[in-house]
Amino acid sequence: MFIAPGSTQLGSRHLQAAPQLGQDLGLPLLHRLTVGMVQLLAHSTAWQHVPCKTCRSPSASCPGFDQGTSTHVCAAVPVCMQGPSELASHHAEQQCGSHTAVTCMLAWRCWLQDEDNLREALRYSAAMLGELRTSFLSPQRYYELYMQVFDELGNLEAYFADEQSKGRTLAELYELVQHAGNVLPRLYLMVAVGCLYIKSGGAKSNEILKDLVEMTKGVQHPTRGLFLRSYLCQRSRGLLPDTGSPYAGEGGDIHDAVDFLLTNFMEMNKLWVRMQHQGVARDRERREKERQQLQDLVGKNLTYISQLDGLSFELYAGSVLPRLLEQVVSCKDELAQQYLMQCIIQGFPDAFHLASLDALLGALPELQSGVKLHAVMASLMDRLARYAASDPSVVQQLLDSHAFEKFVESISKVAELHGDIPAVSLVEMYVALMRFTDGVHSDRLDNVNRVLGACQRGLSGKGLGGDAKAEKQLVVLLSMPLSSRDAVTVLSLDQYPPLMGLLSRRTHKDMALKVVQTVLGQGTCVGSLDSVEMLFKFIAPLVQEGEDDEDMDEEDIEEEQVMVARMLHQLTAPTPGLQFAILRAARAHLELGGPARLKHTYPALAFCGLKAIRRLTAPQQQQQQQPDTAADTDAAAAADDAEGAGKEAESDAPAAAAPADAPASATGSAADAVDAESALQWLLEVALQLAEVPAPMQALRLLLVCAHVSSEEAGLEMLAYEFFEQVRRLGSSMQRRSVCCALATSRETAA
Length: 751
Fold this sequence. Notes:
mainly alpha, 2 strands
């Protein structure tokens, strides 16, 4: 008789088989019958999840499944051959196994709750814990089953505590549970009773914990062993002989607590690493994902070690850290080394890391080449940087310990030993080092130059290899010094240009735009000819024509060149002569940008020149506006005070001459370099070139403004006439209406 899905009716054949299912557990007849029926019910509903061997789909969705014979006849249903993938089949198997195990576990729990006989209760408990012996569940499914068993173990401990109140000693219970037939249920029961034994004060903590951590070596299956040791670690957390703990003294000391947790950690790590080497090669990716789901079980031991009250730096540096690093290096597993190094860095105090920096950095070159060392070093350096920010005295400790030099040496050693390290990983390590430098040594520009130089040497042999991620990280590295320092000063570093040369044109243009934005954001004034040449050398892809111009539309070009035009106003020099030398140098670079760029940058360049001309003509205007003061003296008063007036005239003569001589001496050096006429001639050339772009309206406005300055401010009437003549020639090719609008606009501008 077949059991229909969800049915509670059992045939005689199944009732006869039910006692046999429970006979192996040594139960009474009534109990065997009930447990067997529960198991049959579990399997009767589990058939829906059993995959078809032909189509690999669950039975409930397989149209070729015969419920009467419990067989698949997919040959008669060809459409079923297009069923779910093998991954879906694996999921169905996991769901089936989990459903069966949980159902049977709940059945044992029901009998356990109603049992007053201790031996029968232990037997039911062992049977319930026996469901954890399965090897067919994934870590996620096994965890779900484990959590339900874990909850029941709490009730079981309460049951054992009640037995103690009835006169049964925990020593007797601890010995009694060791008679369980299977090793896994036996060890779970030993941990439960052993922790109660320690808590009651009847046994020494160090002896029981040492016994348990050694006994658990009997389970070598990775998944089962990890969860068993996790249960041991979690239950014994508050029972360790830590400093200040009630279990210390006769029950041991902090060294026993550390030794217990380290031993448990090393055994768990071995089980965790072993998972990667079990099964076929095609399931490697799935096993790695399952291992990642279990990594927190291993790291829990390190968390508990770091939380011990009696953990001093001497104990950490002398015992804990060497054993941890030895285990990390010797396991030779990339995933384990990556995770455990992060656990060590994030779990223990910053002061410990600062004092044991040599040991941590010394272990990095010994790790596997696949470990993301940049992430490990970034975590370490970020923690130390935050530590220094929270306590100013730490900065001096970092200086005294030469932390920066040690990081540079460690990165160089890693790059040398792992010659095949990807460029992106190498650059990311130097990004982390630059972040550390900015946080700790923000005033040390030489350290910035050393980081850039070390990165350039590391990439000199292989470059970026066309890796877009590596280029992106290199842009981050080059941008970091600009965010907190003067842009011109940073660009003057000798190690900056070689790194910029490794960028592609497109990435170089993005970096150039960042440089321009930094100059504008900081309000940096570029006041020397060398600095201007250097600046335009760095932003060359932004102001020169290139192959990628075809992919850019007008709006993109305008957005970039508006930034360059704004930057031109930051080119300011102390003297007008030097100012025009800077503007001429800028014009030489801007001319390479072609018409599409000149119409946006030349107007800004011209108005920068007008500003310099006004600086030239300002002293002359002040002299012309100075009123002529003549003192009319009365003849009678002059006769009476002739002698006094003569003395006053002698004393006033030098004072009156001083204002006339002062402008000449102040502008003498500038006039030798440039005068207003030559400067306006230069502006005329700029305006005519702008008209040829063509940008006639902008050129027309510029000519009119220059004509006004020539006539009204510089007093150069002939040159003003030349500007108006160019206006006439330019206007003849334009419509009359456009000329009138331009004249009206120029009047408003002049006003």
